Amino acid sequence: MALRLRDGVSVAEIEYGIALLDEDRGEYFNLNPTGALVLQTLLGGGTPAQAAQELARQYAVDGDIAGQDVEALMGELRSAGLVTQQPSGA
Known about the structure:
Order of helices and strands: EEEEHHHE
Structural class: alpha+beta
CATH topology: Arc Repressor Mutant, subunit A
Number of strands: 5
Radius of gyration: 13 Å
Number of domains: 1
Distance between the termini: 9 Å
CATH architecture: Orthogonal Bundle
Largest sheet: 3 strands, antiparallel
Strand order of the largest sheet: 2-3-4
Number of helices: 3
Strand content: 25-35%
Shape: globular
CATH class: Mainly Alpha
């Protein structure tokens, strides 16, 4: 399942990570550099495991902790209605 931003959500790089703007609700969300890395990996077609591996590699964090962090961020993004998942190859 590929992760993508919901229609009406735009992304912009900022000085310290990225910002997501929910244009429908007029709300924005900031992701720090680690959150930005995870989201960019997932939006680029990477799996949660690949995002965790990249997070662990770039920030010298334990792989299990990185995996938990990736899952937590994905849950928060879904709860906020910022992302959707589509079947692979769609």
